[in-house]
# Entry
Amino acid sequence: METVLTSGTEEGLIYGFMALGILLSFRMLGFPDLTVEGCFPFAAGVAATLLVAGASPPVATIVAVLSGIVAGLIAGAIHTRLGINNILAGILVASALYTAQLRTMGRPNVPLLNYDTIYGQALGFLGLTESRWGNIAFLAMLTLIVGGALFWFLHTDLGLAVRATGDNEIMVRSLGVDVRDTKMITLALGNGLVALSGALAAQEQGFADVSMGIGTLVAAAAAVVIGETVLGQGGVGRSLLSAVLGSIAYRALLAFGLRLGFPATDFKAVAAVLVLLALVAPQLRNRWRETVTRRAVARGGAAT
Amino acid sequence: MIHMRGVVHHFLRGTVNEVVALAGVNLHVRPQEFVTIIGSNGAGKSTLLRALAGVVMADAGRFTVADTDITCWLEHRRAELISRIDQNPLASTAPQLSIEENMALAFLRGRNRGLGMAVTGKRRDVFRAALSKVALGLEDRLTTKVGTLSGGQRQALALVMAILAEPRVLLLDEHCAALDPKAAAQVMAITEKVVSEQKLTTMMVTHNMEHAIRYGNRLLMMHKGRVVVDVSGPEKTCLTASGLVEKFHILSGEILPDETLLTS
# Structure
């Protein structure tokens, strides 16, 4: 049980960055950004290739994040400047990233077993021994830093315009904001976070693989909606926190399922059902309330 | 303040269903003029305001606001000079954001948005002062989500937001049409107050004949994409609803298809 919790927390924190990215693009902007399916493994591949080539782990990780930001900007430009549908724009970039990753890595899988990683370096820097708990401590600190920066950004004038673009695009444009720019900023940030997640995942599991991105969007969206269900929707701070906690809960569930003998592949369907339920829940709730009200009125009682 | 020359716009251009929305409008609005615009459905009233604000880009014609040619400017750039309120109360405010966040968005209308805090103590004071003018108590509910407000409150907020950054031109596109009579009267009263206080150059489209006559100092009637009646000054002061309808008949030379709309 303890391994379920610790590995769930460790992976949950790694994939929590992805959940934060999806929170920005999918939840705040309403943009189902499939770029992440290509961006996640691509960033992992970039980080792994650089590490193998002798780059230091922080440099490899930062370059991976930058590559994710560029991928997001390209998807954003295809959508906003060329007028391509949002899902298609993401699929196009993800598809191209598949080739880019294979070209970068030179083969479908790059193992990292004998290379120093960001975990080893960070723990050495912090004076901690390499262990799962050490990794969790490092990841928690990184989450606090990144989450804090996001919290700050979303409260600035530019960040507010980014949030408002997803809420009422017509109004934001009429207030003098070029929504093409705010959308591109959102996608750049979202994919940068997903890329960070990919680079951290590759270094934790000890390899980068060309197929590790399948179902990324749905899995991250599932984490976000689990968090929202548990913590409820509210301000920016609560949204950020619930995305990370949702990610930890989702990964713990996954680890628990594996323990019970379910193959990890089963979880793609579970995630899909979870996301579907979360998306239809508001409608179902309204319909249920209407039915209750109607019955109460029919019975002659006061509607509650 | 506003110059429009030869403004033409079509809907579904190049198809069999092509409709002429604006058939060559020439209009000059002087500073501080409050122009009311009436006309039957499809007369081109809303399209005229939307073309001026850049919501639709007109097929032809030139637009000048405050001596600046804005013909080639996109909507978000024109926002620097022009504020526009839509008839739909859901269009002009963001429901998931709080009142103060909506105000902060409007505060920087047409300016670059950087990495400074959107809601600061200093700005909150400005927001409170601006909101207290409409006397709806919104200034005490700065952190309330706008989605929980009524349609009338949202339009009043939209009005405060529209004038917060002191635009050169205010465009009101039937901004009271979707409200109940009481809320409509309230928002109209607020409109008149802020327009006269801030000496704003204003164009207001309305279906309400009485509003068109009572408010403003110039009245336009549009028909089939053209301005057919243009009265101002003492002549407007003496206008009556029946007189307007008569005028319309003489000028357009035909029976109105939906006269009821004009006399309501």
In short: Chain A touches chain B at residues 153, 155-161, 163-164, 167-168, 170-179 (CB under 8 Å). Chain A has a mean pLDDT of 91.
